[in-house]
Amino acid sequence: MRWIDQARGFILVALCITLTEPWEEVEGTILFFLSGHPDETAMYMTLYDVGTLAFLFILGLSFALSFNKHRERGGNFSAIIKVISRYGLLLLLGYVLMLVEHGFDFSVLFAVNEDVGYIIPLWDVVPSLGLVGFIALPFLFIKEPKIRMGMAYGWMFVYEILLLITDIDYYASLTYHGGVFGTIFTYCGVVLIASSMAEYVFTSIETPKKKIKNLVLFGAGNLIVGAIFWIIAALTNILVLAPNKRLATFPYALISLGVIVLAIIPFVWADEVKDKEIPYLVAFGRQPFLTYFIAELFYQVPKMLLDDFTDQMRWIILVIILVITSIVNLLLYKKKKIVPTEFSVILFLLVGILVGLVA
Predict the structure, then answer these.
(1) CB of 295 within 8 A of CB of 318?
(2) What whole-number distance in Å separates Cα of residue 295 and Cα of residue 210?
(3) Burial of 178 by CB count in 10 Å (0-12 exposed, 13-18 middle, 19+ buried)?
(4) Which residues of the chain have pLDDT under 50?
(5) How far apart are CA 180 and CA 121, in angstroms?
(6) pTM, whole model, 2 decimals?
(7) Would you call 112 helix, strand, or coil by DSSP?
């Protein structure tokens, strides 16, 4: 799984760099394209918008492989419990972190929005990571990767239809990442597509060069279809047909998938064709949740405790995050240790609660 680790490592390093955003973002500039999210009414996306789905994609790469490995060792029940416990902890962590941010005010979690008249759960990226595991789990029993991938695209397209024929688009605009429905359909679909692609690369008897050629066609195909939707959106002025991260639209997923697949092909080539390893990226890629939680911890805690959170302070925190995550990951890599996801989540839960109580 070396190329998966290297691709994960690349995305995690990028996540650490862009987390603090110590530069000024002005819409229409290169910096905004690299590190800014457009609003819910934008009919376009930025490269930074790809980041959330990229993180989900790299988690999805090992999703089916890990699940099948646990099935072989302990049977279906053991594998299911493993997924439920891991992603259940992530879902719990997401809500604990949001409660900490809102001073443990439980009324904000499932507030009724007066404009639409129904409950809009408080939402963010960590609960999205947790919920995805529950929704994607039944699809893992589809053994044929191509069928699973086809169903994943159909699953995401269902959400696009709902955006067109219901007021779910307005609901999505009031929350983040498409809210619960965007996570259930779009984010889940991306994880399933990643799991199917990884199985193809590892189990196919085709030559490495043939696999890479197919990956190029796959990535380009997603980009082209996504661009077609984008053109239709521009001609018809229908927002939900455009690539919009806030709404988690189908075209947003397609274009993101195209960018992600084409971006990780060099890592597949280096591993499968050249048999090369990049230790620094592998070290990061083997500890995705630990890296993410360390980065968030050293960013969020100073942000909560410091009244004057200047751009200069953001630069300092960025350097601290890179140094600490690099040292931790390289030490673990050298010792050939992998920190279990469950341990990282529980540790972050305890630290998050403690920081919230102190703050």
Answers:
(1) no
(2) 37
(3) buried
(4) none
(5) 8
(6) 0.90
(7) strand
